[in-house]
Amino acid sequence: MFSLSELENDALIEIFNIGVGQAAASMSAIVNEAVHMSVPSVSFINRAEAARLLDGKSAEPAGAICGVSQHYEGAFSTEAILMFPEDKSLEIVRLMVGEAVSQKELTEMEQEAMCEIGNIILNSCVGTLANIFQRELQGSLPQYHVGTSDQILIASGSQADTVVLMLHIDFLLEKHQIHGYVAFVLDISALHDLKEQINLYIARAMGQA
């Protein structure tokens, strides 16, 4: 399985911490609550392992997952996917729109609202990568998916042999604790492009470029 050195891994976590901090600030403004997001680790796993990991985080027996995906091209090519257990998605939308909205209206708004949240979080993460790598990453419009984690990974273009970069995010709100995952689906070529960009960033940080 593809892996990074300790230095490369630390650099990638540092970059994602910056992006997640920006996403937290944007989310706080939307839900009108303090939002803290932590990035404890990143891991490179295959699609089947990623699906098992995500299914284990859902409170529903069927392992229903709500996902928002966007495709990015530029410094490297990737499908970025934000995923929550489906039982948490309406709770997140309720935080966005307030208590005055009926349950029926809330359900109707769910897809649009989740796409907005996905767009904010994914673009914060990917935008930070682009800025730090000093390269462009162009994103598509967000796409909304509901199903098992494997169905969402397949729907977003993941092949069985692709590698998934899993980024675990804890969403800590004043009154809620919501766990989400961001997955970056990369083929071997994109993985090596990512590794190259990380090493160029490290070289610049150390004054070697």
Considering the chains and any ligands shown, give keywords for the structure:
209 residues; alpha+beta; Chemotaxis protein chec; eight-stranded antiparallel beta sheet; 27% strand; Chemotaxis protein CheC; CheX-like_dom
Summarize the structure.
With 209 residues, the chain is α+β, with helices and mostly antiparallel strands. 49% of the residues lie in helices and 27% in strands.
Furnish the topology, listing elements before pairings.
Layout: H1 6-31, E1 35-38, E2 42-46, H2 47-55, E3 65-74, E4 78-85, H3 86-97, H4 103-133, E5 137-139, E6 143-147, H5 149-155, E7 163-173, E8 177-186, H6 188-205
Helix pairs in contact: 1-4, 1-6, 3-4
Describe the structure.
With 209 residues, this protein is an alpha+beta fold. The protein has one domain (6-206): CheC-like (Chemotaxis protein chec), CATH 3.40.1550.10. It has six helices and eight strands. The chain has helices at residues 6-31, 47-55, 86-97, 103-133, 149-155, 188-205, and strands at residues 35-38, 42-46, 65-74, 78-85, 137-139, 143-147, 163-173, 177-186. Strands 1, 2, 3, 4, 5, 6, 7 and 8 form an eight-stranded antiparallel β-sheet that branches. α1 crosses α6 (188-205). It is globular. The model has no long low-confidence stretch (mean pLDDT 84).
Mean pLDDT: 84
Computed Rg: 17 Å
Number of domains: 1
CATH T-level fold name: Chemotaxis protein chec
Largest sheet: 8 strands, antiparallel
Structural class of the secondary elements? alpha+beta
Helix fraction by DSSP (H/I, runs of at least 4)? 40-55%
N→C terminal distance = 29 Å
Encode the helix/strand succession as letters. Answer: HEEHEEHHEEHEEH
Name the shape in a single word: globular
* CATH structural architecture: 3-Layer(aba) Sandwich
Assigned CATH superfamily = CheC-like
Residue share in β-strands: 25-35%
Number of helices: 6
CATH C-level label = Alpha Beta
Low-confidence runs of at least 5 consecutive residues: none
What's the count of strands? 8
